[in-house]
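Support request, priority: normal
Reporter: lab tech (M.K.)
Component: structure prediction queue

Hi team, I submitted a job for Glycoside hydrolase family 1 protein from Novosphingobium flavum yesterday, and the status page still shows it as pending. I've pasted the exact input below so you can check whether something in the sequence is tripping the parser. The sequence length should be 442 residues. Please let me know if I need to resubmit or if it's stuck on your end.
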Amino acid sequence: MIDRRNLLAAGALTGIGAMAGAAPRRMARPAPVDPRFPQGFLWGAATAGHQVEGQNVNSDVWFAEHVTPTVYAEPSGDAANSFNLWPTDMDLVRSLGLNTYRFSLEWARIEPAPSEFSLAMLDHYKAMIEGCRARGLNPVVTFNHFACPRWFAARGGWSNPQAPELFARYCDRAARHLAAGIAYALTLNEPNLAGVLQELLPGNLLEADKAMTAAAARALGVDHFEAGNNLSIRDPAATQAGLLRAHKLGRAAIKAVRPDLPVGVSLAMLDEQAVGRNSLRDAKRERYYGPWLRAVRGDDFVGVQNYERSVWTDKGKLPPPPGARTNMMGAEVYPPSLAGVVRYAHAVTGRPVLVTEHGVGTDDDTIRQWLIPEALAELKRAMAEGVPVLGYIHWSLVDNFEWVFGYRIHFGLCSLDRATFARTPKPSAHLLGRIARANALG
Ligand code: BGC
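Reply from support: The job had stalled in the queue. We restarted it manually and it finished. Here are the results:
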């Protein structure tokens, strides 16, 4: 189990980082046409259940965190205790000046055993949706953000031929309880990377993940354990087929309950750039995004999550240019990458784009303070060119459980004191809030 997007970067760096040469810098960007954003633009911050709630004990990820051997640096434990402190989180989002909060439902809480649905947990998430509305926040709700019920992983996770129907059944039940108040729904988070990432990873990491997965299967007495965020995928084609169909059936289930609710999926996208002749860029794009960008053409919008760019020659990926600002993983922080993927996603799908995640893992908040307005200026430029963008949701509201890296990598607009659960806004939080309040770049 792993943070797939971080490892995409890490894997690419490990695999071909020795290549000579440096990624090109783009020409200086002209000022944005108009600093104002359209009325009704969504300005938000995001979290995901397992990463902030704490004690998600019936989930596959919790199980993998505690199995021996595990690839997790540490267990998620109480996380940010957002299961109890969600009103604090929402007050924070509102006080910063944002109008949108993205969070996820935890399937493992709602359906802790197959077909046993918990009314109490559905009520919990209903209270969260109503809590958003009471504060004037648009709830953007992810039905599944990587973590799944342990029983689902013990049946092979997304590779199980029954997985799409099981997911659709959960979506139907959750939607009947919750859909009325949701502003935008996402079925899955970053499903496009499942099973393809392992091609890029260093062998030792892959082997460690396989050992963990095998240990989890042994402990549960099953043939195959595949968690929602598994890194080693036994049959990538089956898992991808399962996820594509799960999105389709999940979306249909939600739409059947509330046809006017916009439903989409969020895709992990790097800004893939081509250099020279016969660049590997287009092959990379097809492999990582092609099937999903085609699949979402019938959706109401496409959710885009971006953190980085990749620059491809005919031989591989170039390393960051000398002097580039980098994140905690050593990857380049490149502000125009967000607009790059937004333009591409819209060009291929024809759908409006919702930026469901964008941010940086760093302990240096000045990098975040630089990234946000720079990226938004280029995003606004793309919008002026005609790309419909519904909103910008920053990852993350608060430093949280960064999957396999535990609490060591910090993406938050707010820091977290793990002893008191106090959240403290960083300067970047106020900066994003000022832009949101003005609905314009300063
Ligand atoms: C995921 C988050 C993760 C973030 C930062 C995205 O890949 O949706 O769960 O924490 O990136 O790595």
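The domain at 4-13+34-438 is CATH 3.20.20.80 (TIM Barrel). Residues 1-5, 8-24 have pLDDT under 50 and may be disordered. Let us know if anything else looks off. Ticket resolved.
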